[in-house]
Specification:
Protein name: Lipoprotein
Distance between the termini: 109 Å
Number of domains: 1
Keywords: Signal
Oligomer: single chain
Length: 191
């Protein structure tokens, strides 16, 4: 036989099918919404960078405190921290809440404020009052040094084990730290 091979008869039809399929895929891709581009923080002012570094250092401080806690102790330390103001600009970009040591971390938004809750045990061999004293002191410092992070904590529902004079001494030290922080950021020191 001298006729053309039958396979060549279907080539134009096959090409048409491929063209139509490609057009359909292109239309479907154009109809699919694209994800929003990430926020550009490359042009953030120096003040923003300073706030971001400050917030990260405070989170690291809390992580260091919790790194000393262990589930085998006799008591619990509960504290909550919340961030407001310019700190939120950084925390909205990086939700890396520290999760160090033993315990449970939770965070949620309420009234435009990021709230963080942490619960942990007391280190083995360390009396609950001593651990409470160390943690409460750190919390007061965080609360006063610039007003970015506010922290409250209690041990078994009360913080009364910490002597009042110790609290006052810590608050004085925190006020000094706050003044240094304000001067560093160009703010107005307290009188």
């Amino acid at each position: 036989m001298t006729g053309r091979p039958r396979s060549t008869v279907h080539v134009p039809m096959l090409a048409l099918v491929l063209v139509l399929a490609a057009a359909g895929c292109a239309r479907k891709a154009s109809d699919t919404p694209r994800p929003a581009a990430p926020a550009d923080t490359s042009a953030a002012p120096e003040a923003f960078a300073a706030i971001a570094a400050d917030v990260e250092s405070r989170l690291a401080t809390l992580a260091l405190v919790e790194g000393r806690l262990d589930a085998g102790g006799g008591g619990e330390i509960r504290w909550s921290a919340w961030f407001d103001g310019p700190a939120l600009l950084h925390l909205r970009e990086r939700m890396d809440v520290p999760d160090v040591g033993w315990g449970e971390t939770g965070y949620w938004w309420k009234d435009g404020v990021l709230r963080i809750y942490r619960e942990a045990g007391v280190t083995k061999g360390m009396h609950g009052a001593r651990a409470a004293s160390d943690t409460l002191e750190r919390a007061i410092l965080l609360d006063a040094a610039g007003g970015v992070v506010h922290a409250t904590q209690s041990v078994n529902g009360t913080a009364s084990e910490l002597p009042a004079e110790r609290v006052e001494a810590v608050r004085r030290r925190a006020a000094e730290m706050a003044d240094v922080a304000r001067k560093t950021r160009g703010g107005t020191p307290r009188p």
